[in-house]
């Protein structure tokens, strides 16, 4: 009996920022069995499909690439074998992307397919550069055109001459190899040499670079600035709008590379916040989270949770591991009974909320004293307290509670271990050459990073901007001999990034040189 036919989805990955992919595209990646992805689709999108087989079929100019015919054959063969296949294409799958050729081949082979549009590169690049492609007073039309050659066809300036005055805004894909010839042909076609023009490279990414000039000098300016592919050339009066509409590359964190040493699954939300600030997250885990080897005590605490006055969670990991045992025991949120629940930090509260529990108290500051003072100010008993936490956690919180007369049971829910092997090497390399700042969100992260770096920790880290999320983390960093350049006033990732932005904004005009 033959296997049921699969299906192919031609999905636009969008440009640059991975969060610009459509909701439909994200959903399809989450259930794909095989993903064939292009060179310009953001690598972070591949984290949305951990269950899938990944095939790199990207084309890069001047490098060996997978032939188009082979890509099409793979799509057909995979679908015929019953697979759910996503063809992930940078930008939009049909806009100068050969998606139509793939769709036609699939139709001819009678393979079911679906086209999922994406935000195309010039739309995003122009928006992120602060350039509106149309404007009532400047341009009522826009033309998208490719500057690359069709195989076997000689390039001719005649079409460009005709286009010169036929449209308001000219937006050129893949034209950097011929930018001088293209701009000259447009001038020869009658366009004013003084027409504003721009080149936007790596649009909608923190490494975006924009050069502005006129039609007569933009080729020279872009070449002098070292701009090559991938880039979009924009010609038209709308380019002048950039002076007032710039928003992305004016951020104090624009282009900065910020090390996030959290485990990848936990770093995802932090990385997204960093990208929203126009910076690049460099995710290199310094910590490996491991469930407790013997869960007997943790399971016993789950069964006894209802007998405590308060159950306190100090991290998302604590919530996750506690509820893993709740699930293993076939229980649910009712294990808490009449016990109240407290958390340190809104992220821990969010993890709890996903399990159907709204914390009765969330510490305003991410320090033990804040939590204890807040609990004491509430009505009710504080005699018996349960704290599921990391094996390596400090004793500040239990000691502070015991000093106020509480009986505190601490149960180990998980272990945090310093990264080793390839993970450790990646962290060392990132700190040495890939980041401008290091974001520490906990004392355990400081300890882990310093453990990986060893005796050179202070000298290596002190060459970067060191950011700490609060005073406890700061004190740990200082104990390792680190200089703390930035300390958050609000003890959240957003608070830390606000403080880092203020730090950079206060530097000398132009700020420190960015890493290339």
Describe what this molecule looks like in 3D.
This protein has four domains: 7-118, Cobalt-precorrin-4 Transmethylase, domain 1 (3-Layer(aba) Sandwich), CATH 3.40.1010.10; 123-245, Tetrapyrrole methylase, C-terminal domain (Methyltransferase, Cobalt-precorrin-4 Transmethylase, Domain 2), CATH 3.30.950.10; 257-286 and 419-505, Rossmann fold; 290-418, Rossmann fold (3-Layer(aba) Sandwich). It is 34% helix and 20% strand. The longest helix is centred in the N-terminal third of the chain and has 13 residues, at 68-80. Helix 10 (296-304) packs across helix 11, helix 11 (316-328) runs parallel beside helix 12 and helix 16 (443-453) runs parallel beside helix 18. It is globular. With 516 residues, it is of the alpha/beta class. It is built from 19 helices and 21 strands. The protein has helices spanning 23-29, 68-80, 99-108, 121-128, 158-163, 179-188, 218-224, 242-245, 264-276, 296-304, 316-328, 346-353, 368-376, 396-403, 421-433, 443-453, 457-461, 471-479, 493-505, and strands spanning 7-12, 34-37, 53-56, 84-89, 113-116, 142-146, 169-173, 196-201, 209-214, 231-235, 257-260, 280-283, 287-291, 310-313, 340-344, 361-363, 384-390, 407-418, 437-440, 465-468, 486-487. The strands form four sheets. Strands 13-18-17-14-15-16 form a six-stranded mixed sheet, sandwiched between helices. A five-stranded parallel sheet has the order 3-2-4-1-5, sandwiched between helices. Strands 6-7-10-8-9 form a five-stranded mixed sheet, with helices on both faces. Residues 511-516 have low confidence and may be disordered.
